[in-house]
């Protein structure tokens, strides 16, 4: 988590270098992979961002934050089929972890909502 945060604490020109350092230290950590996906998204490298989002949810399907960001990414840049695919895969994975995911899923107003509804939030 600290390496993922460190990527975005750097100035824009140094972010790529910091992400390479983070990947060397934590190669299979979903938070670092998610940070790299967000980095590509911010640089408007849509295909690479999608690949890294897919890699992240494949390694850790229980991380709800990754699903939420992946869904938001597809809402902006994907087709309806891609959005639906992400939603279905998220519902099948039933994520339970992630800072933002837990905040939404455990909020009092969302206590009876299903995974797909929480994903949209």
TrEMBL record:
Keywords: Repeat. InterPro entries: Syf1-like (IPR045075), TPR-like_helical_dom_sf (IPR011990). This is Pre-mRNA-processing factor 6. The gene is PRPF6_1. Signal peptide: none annotated.
